[in-house]
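Example (one chain per record):
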Amino acid sequence: MKEGILIIDKPQGITSHDVVNSVRRKLGIKRVGHAGTLDPIATGLLIILVGKVTKSFNKFVNFDKEYLATLTLGKRTDTGDALGNVVKTEPFGHITQEKVKEVSNSFVGDIEQIPPMVSALKYKGKRLYSLAKKGISVPRESRKIKIHSLEIIKFSLPDVDLRIACSKGTYIRKLGEDMGELLGCGAHISQIRRTAIGPFRIEEAIKLEEVDESLLRNWPV
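Predicted structure:
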């Protein structure tokens, strides 16, 4: 029986559900799911659950995660990432690495985050992203998350490359927007790559085109 997990390196430009559909076709099985959505702009670690292992979904989504992200200063977009429309442009040349570090440090620890409108959360039965596409904004309650670490790995204006370790439920796009707000110049996430989910690392991931039944890993249901 085909069951287990696949650790996949999702390419940019497709949805997590696209990956699920591809695995279904390759393995010839309908019971396939993923443990944690990646936006189309994002690349990196996506855990695919096959067969009875789909019952273990909650064990995976509760894991902490790690990302590499590029924060681009000076431009706010309507989605918080590079796929959105630029809604405001502001000067950023005065921003120093020390200032970004100061702002970054202010987010480390237990914080409250308001989920973005462009997300898969539901409001009265409808996905927020579907409402956002219609230009509708609805109230969202803030949620407690934890940023374990937020490290600057490269500073080259307008871009700041970050390594972020965080709890489940963290929206990196919203984190980028909030950092831009505190910096006073606006910002959006132009690149994002998930590099770890709990004990799983991107180094052990396979490409989507490499998916094969022989690569399924055992996982207790």
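Caption: The radius of gyration is 18 Å.
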